[in-house]
Amino acid sequence: MIRGIRGATTITGDHLEELLIETEKLVLEMVRVNHVDPDEVASVIISTTTDICSGFPAKAVRSIEGWKYVPVMCTHEMVVSGSLPHCIRVLMHVNTSVSQEHIHHIYLNEAIGLRPDLSS
């Protein structure tokens, strides 16, 4: 069974170093809390709000030990009036026997308010 694990975080501005640090922090927390091994990951989709264009957050994921061959793709989010700025969202597709209700979705920084019903 493939399950989706959601995560989101924010950065203070469009700064490459912060983008990479916060993306890595988010992904590491998602895998830590959900006990995910990189070999169990089918793919990762990362989206950013359109105010982030300093770099590819996928670079942060590929730099994590054991993640070199995990397929990662980046895209921009829809532009929606009033949406949270400087936001990075991750959807990780994981091969697991864990039920949907036991998946822990991770929201960090200002993204905590996006889905309080799913935050661990």
From TrEMBL:
<keyword id="KW-0057">Aromatic amino acid biosynthesis</keyword>
<dbReference type="InterPro" id="IPR035959">
    <property type="entry name" value="RutC-like_sf"/>
</dbReference>
<feature type="binding site">
    <location>
        <position position="6"/>
    </location>
    <ligand>
        <name>prephenate</name>
    </ligand>
</feature>
<dbReference type="GO" id="GO:0004106">
    <property type="term" value="F:chorismate mutase activity"/>
</dbReference>
<dbReference type="Pfam" id="PF07736">
    <property type="entry name" value="CM_1"/>
</dbReference>
<feature type="binding site">
    <location>
        <position position="107"/>
    </location>
    <ligand>
        <name>prephenate</name>
    </ligand>
</feature>
<dbReference type="GO" id="GO:0008652">
    <property type="term" value="P:amino acid biosynthetic process"/>
</dbReference>
<protein>
    <recommendedName>
        <fullName>chorismate mutase</fullName>
        <ecNumber>5.4.99.5</ecNumber>
    </recommendedName>
</protein>
<dbReference type="GO" id="GO:0046417">
    <property type="term" value="P:chorismate metabolic process"/>
</dbReference>
<dbReference type="InterPro" id="IPR008243">
    <property type="entry name" value="Chorismate_mutase_AroH"/>
</dbReference>
<dbReference type="GO" id="GO:0009073">
    <property type="term" value="P:aromatic amino acid family biosynthetic process"/>
</dbReference>
<feature type="binding site">
    <location>
        <position position="89"/>
    </location>
    <ligand>
        <name>prephenate</name>
    </ligand>
</feature>
<keyword id="KW-0413">Isomerase</keyword>
<keyword id="KW-0028">Amino-acid biosynthesis</keyword>
